[in-house]
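Hi support team,

I'm filing this because I wasn't sure whether my run with adenosine-5'-triphosphate finished correctly. The job status page said complete, but I'd like someone to confirm that the output block is well-formed before I use it downstream. Pasting the exact inputs I used:
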Amino acid sequence: MAALKLHIDKISKKFGEINVLRDVSISVAAGELVTLLGPSGCGKSTLLRIIAGLERADQGHVFAGDKKLDDVAPKDRDLAFVFQSYALYPHLSVYDNIAAPLVMRELSSLERLPLLGTALPGAAGRYRSIDERVRETSAILKLDALLDRRPAALSGGQRQRVALGRAMVRAPRIFLMDEPLANLDAALRIHTRGEIARLHKKMGATTVFVTHDQAEAAAISDRVAVMFGGQVRQIAKPADLYRDPVDLEVARFLAQPFLNEVPVSATVGGMVAIGSGKIALRDAIGSTGPGTLAFRPEHASIAAHDVPGTLRVCLSRIEHSGTDANLFVEAEADAEFVVRVSADQARSVHPGEHLALTIDAENAWFFPESRSRRERVEREAA
Ligand SMILES: Nc1ncnc2c1ncn2[C@@H]1O[C@H](COP(=O)(O)OP(=O)(O)OP(=O)(O)O)[C@@H](O)[C@H]1O
Ligand SMILES: [Mg+2]
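And here is everything the job wrote out:
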């Protein structure tokens, strides 16, 4: 079945006096996977529930293809919704839980009858086709060994995979997933997100995926919509989002757990004075005056003391994490940074030591204070 374009057009929603969504517009191309990424409470689930028809928008519309969905009942929207916590049928086996939507859709009530049903003309073929799809889906989700169990005999992660399976097996034209991996442990989470990405490629269903985990969003999305306070702040391909965050808040959210931020002043020509040196900004057009220079821990490195343009810092502590390490350093102006280095490099330095730091100007951003202040004012006024 051909995938459908999904268009979210100027959606606003209030709960009481709170603006939960403000003028949100997103176009998801047919077959595209777009992730809504943002902190808790920014309105991700509410937007997904509006797309599904479980919640009504105060303003705006949702279109699937050319069809306006506003007055279409949730069950007629041809979409599947996977929630973070998903109620399985407790009295049915894993197999029957996954098969349930197909059985309901493709077999008549007579054909569903035990024993007799399979004997009806044509029913055997339909049962076989359902069986194939249930087995294919359970193999993908590594549920094959659990097909005879009841949900009560499964772990949280296994239950969640059954819920995913039940949604996938219907091959819906639009897929909505609200933090479907949140209850899984780290390894399974990475495995399952890979499977979702693979399955998405194969099924080609238009998908809106919700997470507040930026690594997860980057791993599976065609594009990511970053949301704050009920608004979409930026929507872009993961690589573009990482390279060009639109403001400091987006940069911070994408650089978790650390974004280095230094108060600096930019001069005409895009030079920023930092410590004893200056760095030339990559994209400095129009941005002069006070602001913040921001960069990720992996975009600073330790240099020899005589390299020009370095920043003098003092190493305060080292946090090892296997193949690499985080160096916590203090700069002259009381600022603390984190620098990511290899484990080998971390072994050659010691707390208390003075180091020279270079910042990769290609991957540092200058956010002028005036702009962030303006944004703050706009946000507060809204
Ligand atoms: N039915 C409701 N009645 C009143 N307020 C609600 C309701 N549903 C959500 N909210 C509020 O709307 C805001 C957005 O909630 P929403 O669940 O959409 O956030 P979210 O981005 O999904 O957060 P999380 O990452 O924690 O799931 C929150 O402040 C929440 O408290
Ligand atoms: Mg939510």
